[in-house]
């Protein structure tokens, strides 16, 4: 990676040279040696991560949750919070970020950009001593946004809570592709637009309007007077119950069709199985999501073999189960799991229980009043 010492940011002032033979052309692109260049060894990363860190004037330090940043032409394109990495990697990334900021001076918010390598190492890439694009999601997703946190730190107020108040968030940058104004990942309609001579602004406003139809979406428009290639014109933040749900909503937002409540990501798995019941155990061994095994009645043993197989999963591979052929209970158990983080689902489950209770009491009163013979013959 060949970089300029000055004015190198947002994909500007850096070029990748994949071989020694490409170095001359890369140097020419950057303006030659007179501009002041340096070379970094390429880091074979599999993910780019970032940690926003706040440091107070009293040297107190707090870290925001680790996020994954996805870049397009070396410019931050999408941020996913929290990052989809194992707990050990999250802790290691936080530790590296904490130590990096502890070694510096100054108060405020610092963005620590990191590389995750295939062998599980965390490499320090860059430290930006300011609020950063990787932390813009905190406006909607955290108890204290990075901007409020920066002010708290600089003026000497206690640092705020950096934890997320929503389970997940995705930030999507509105990047202009070129001078005429098309937008990254947004399909420009076939008919030409003309909005005061700048069709890109109208395309951007269409995307924002579409975003506002998505549950949990907030649009931020920076009101910059002109578009330049790969310039950040704004961003859209989606918050919701999981990154999987938000990825589905983002894909829907970027399609030409409107939002139609697509499959919003899996949170609980019900695996039906008969006989040896391999399916629930195999699924549970491959995913961190909760798995409910549904034993299915087969032609022999009436599903008892399936039930015993599911409840005897090896240690470390938990699978919940219900009675043979009781798909209703499997579905209700899944709803209860989801209801822990969804007030609407929890209220619906409460209503279902009340309705069931009323139904049972009505049947009991009829049995008491009419007797069992009349009751059974109705």
UniProtKB/TrEMBL annotation:
Source organism (scientific name): Gossypium barbadense
Pathway: Purine metabolism; IMP biosynthesis via de novo pathway; 5-amino-1-(5-phospho-D-ribosyl)imidazole-4-carboxylate from 5-amino-1-(5-phospho-D-ribosyl)imidazole (carboxylase route): step 1/1
Presence of the UniProt keyword Nucleotide-binding in the record: yes
Protein keywords: ATP-binding, Decarboxylase, Lyase, Nucleotide-binding, Purine biosynthesis
InterPro entries attached to this UniProt entry: ATP-grasp (IPR011761), ATP-grasp_carboxylate-amine (IPR003135), ATP_grasp_subdomain_1 (IPR013815), PurE_ClassI (IPR033747), PurE_dom (IPR000031), PurK_C (IPR040686), Rudment_hybrid_motif (IPR011054)
GO molecular function term, any single one: phosphoribosylaminoimidazole carboxylase activity
GO biological process: 'de novo' IMP biosynthetic process
Family: In the C-terminal section; belongs to the AIR carboxylase family. Class I subfamily.
Domain ATP-grasp: from-to ranges: 1-155
Reactions the enzyme catalyzes: 5-amino-1-(5-phospho-D-ribosyl)imidazole-4-carboxylate + H(+) = 5-amino-1-(5-phospho-beta-D-ribosyl)imidazole + CO2
Keyword Lyase included in the entry's annotation: yes
HAMAP family linked to this entry: PurE_classI (MF_01929)
This enzyme's EC code(s): 4.1.1.21
UniProt protein name: phosphoribosylaminoimidazole carboxylase
One GO term describing the cellular component: chloroplast
Pfam family, one: AIRC
